[in-house]
Each structure stands twice: as structure tokens, then as C-alpha cells.
Write a structure and sequence with these properties.
mainly alpha, elongated
Length: 140
């Protein structure tokens, strides 16, 4: 399976989690305190994963002649964009009357970036040789 497909599927997984939590939050139900806490922070966790892998998938699809070393450096850029963007948005909320700043959302973002790193290392081949990646991409 091509790297761009692997990363795209991971991004879709993050988007599915984000959508499921948003749907759950819109339902007229009462959650216990821990459930309410999870419903509050999970969007940041899921968004960190989704943003990271959607960007990485786009990068991988535009550069098919890539190697793992290159993708690792691109992952770090995508993780930084995702993390800084979400944490920056959380900091902007401190100046707003409409939105609520929450340090737990920032921590959930960092947990999402950490989970993204774990998923990245699981789904990315453990090789630096471009030909090995191409062979794995060509395998059925």
C-alpha cells in the first residue's frame, strides 16, 4: 500500500473520531463527569491526528519518489503545524468572550500529536532505502 494511502487512511480515522465525538456532543444525553471531560477534550485529540496525517498524505502523494528519512522530516513539520495551530487557536480563545480557553484541550492536542507519532512509526516502513518502499508499495 502506498505511503500516501496509509497516511490518508490514518487521517480519515482521525476525522471519523472527530465527527463521532461532535455527533455525540450534539445528542440530548447527560454524561457522567468523566464522559463529559472526554467529550470536551477528544475533539482536540482527534483534530491533532487528522490534521497531521491529512497534510502528510498530501505531501506523500505529491512526492512519490520519497524515502523514509524524508517522510520523517515531513512528519515533524506536519506535527508542528498541527500542534502549533491547535494550541495557537486555544490561546486565541483567551481573548474571546465567545470561546472558552481550556488547558486540558492543549494537553489533549499534545496527546494527539504523541499518538500521531506512534501511528506514524507503526505504518511507515522501517527502511531508508527508496527501492524498499517502492517494493512494499507495489506488493499486493
Amino acid at each position: 500500500m502506498q505511503l500516501s494511502m496509509r497516511y490518508g487512511l490514518a487521517g480519515i480515522g482521525g476525522l471519523i473520531l472527530l465527527s463521532a465525538v461532535q455527533w455525540l456532543r450534539d445528542q440530548p444525553m447527560s454524561l457522567d463527569p468523566f464522559g463529559a471531560y472526554l467529550a470536551g477534550v477528544t475533539p482536540n485529540f482527534a483534530a491533532a491526528i487528522a490534521i497531521c496525517f491529512v497534510l502528510l498524505s498530501i505531501w506523500a502523494s505529491h512526492r512519490r519518489d520519497t524515502n523514509v528519512t524524508y517522510m520523517r522530516s515531513r512528519f515533524l513539520v506536519c506535527a508542528a503545524i498541527s500542534g502549533l495551530g491547535l494550541i495557537g487557536w486555544e490561546l486565541v480563545q483567551r481573548t474571546s468572550q465567545r470561546f472558552v480557553f481550556d488547558i486540558h484541550d492543549m494537553l489533549a492536542t499534545l496527546a494527539g500529536i504523541g499518538t500521531s507519532a506512534l501511528v506514524f512509526f507503526i505504518i511507515t516502513p522501517n527502511t531508508s532505502d527508496k527501492s524498499d518502499i517502492e517494493e512494499q508499495d507495489a506488493a499486493p
